[in-house]
Amino acid sequence: MFQVKIRIGLVAAKLQLLRLYRMHRRSAANALSKATRGFTKREFKTAQRLLASVPSGSKATPSSPSLFSNTSTQKRQDDQMLLHPLYREVADQTSMQVFESELVNEGNIGLALAFPSKTPDPLRIFGIPKSVEKTFDLVTRPFSVVRRPTLSLRQTLENARKSGSDNRIVITGGAGTGKSYLLLQTIIHCVASNWIVLYLPRAIDTVNCTTPYNYEPRTQTFLQPMLSEKLLRQLRDMGHSGLKKLTLTNDFAIDSAPPGAPKKGQRLIELIEYGILEVSMAPFVLEQLLAELASQTQYPFLLAIDDFQALYSQSQYKTPQFEPIESFHLSVPRLLLEYACGSRKIHNGALLSALSMSNTSWLPKTEIYEALNLDLTHGKRPDAWDKRSEAYQHYAAGLKAFRMPERLEIKEAAGILDVMKNDRALLSDPSDQLFLSKYCESNGNPKEFVWRGLMATLDS
What we know:
Residues 52-76 are annotated as: Disordered. It comes from Serendipita indica (strain DSM 11827). It holds the Pfam family DAP3. The chain is an alpha/beta fold. The protein folds into 3 domains: 2-80, no CATH class; 148-403, no CATH class; 410-458, no CATH class. 40% of the residues lie in helices and 10% in strands. The chain is built from 17 helices and 11 strands. The chain has helices at 2-24, 29-35, 41-52, 122-126, 130-136, 148-163, 179-192, 225-238, 242-245, 268-277, 282-295, 331-341, 366-371, 390-396, 410-422, 432-441, 446-454; strands spanning 112-114, 143-145, 168-172, 196-200, 214-216, 221-223, 301-305, 314-318, 324-326, 349-354, 400-403. The strands form 4 sheets. The protein has a 5-stranded parallel β-sheet with strand order 4-7-10-3-11, with helices on both faces. The relative contact order is 0.12.
């Protein structure tokens, strides 16, 4: 009976909040769609406080003070109402600068920059990691903060591309240190600098048995046609002009290929369209396409991979005899591993990857742990009795670690707080005491500073 009363209270609070909100924002379709989601305990407490501040029988007008203002004397414009993040319309973040390469410099460390939303948008086409997606839900406009590693990694890529050296970089660091954000910043920079980019934000999806596969006797591997077709489609949707200018240096020669296979001299975009049309040929098309992009020198090519450690472990796929399949026996992971170990070289560009610690089922294994000389923040240190795989040791050879700092600098943390304050994601007014206390509680860890530091101010 008590649970029924609580549920009735939730529904009543939701309806009342929606009614009040419609009177203020009839055109806020985006916020209303968010408001239809189910309440959590924290959101219900927030709704109770908001509704308690509204006099019974009062009617909101566009010219009246905000019902959700922090103080009774503070007045806001109608388009600047303070609402809980779940229900507010897009806040006024037009003053936030958009991430551009020119703004990434020593003097702008700690500056918050919004991810660009212009077409083509790599974050929309390729997707983003799950951990980053959760953080993006906290704010009305996805952003990142310029950090010292942002400058360092960009310079590393530029120097390596100019020198033509072997560039196989893995971003390492403890959980929540911002590895995925740094990878996203680099991708945005490369897209703006006219690089051809292929980004896999969730490499775990290549080995967790979420896409169809079939055995190929000729190569004795398991093909992943749907996954390969998806990657081809994403490359096409990015719309890089180089795909229409670069031509094939070799024929697409597969005995079982359906009619219409592109020949030497045809444009790369025609090869991509053929792979999308003939899904059964997509794994072979993807292999030849990456070979063409890696060998040409006219446009720099970036192969970016998040959840990189998942490629160095046994997959969740099974053979018809229900035996587990190693990742290097799957077409897409094997292709990525060959570029990671240097058996396939990128002559003008780089392979840039990041380890992820958010999924404990896919932590770094012994081979990648030793190849990158990782520390205890990446899991259990392997010992002499742990079993090693010669195949994975081969695929991990030559990788270079790019270490992320464990803590934010003070001005980097201040940049995050400033955005959260301007975005009205905090119910309490931030102060120096609040900032320093949350920074110390989280030990400067970026993820902990946001989730268990700033967002903890929402608790009553």
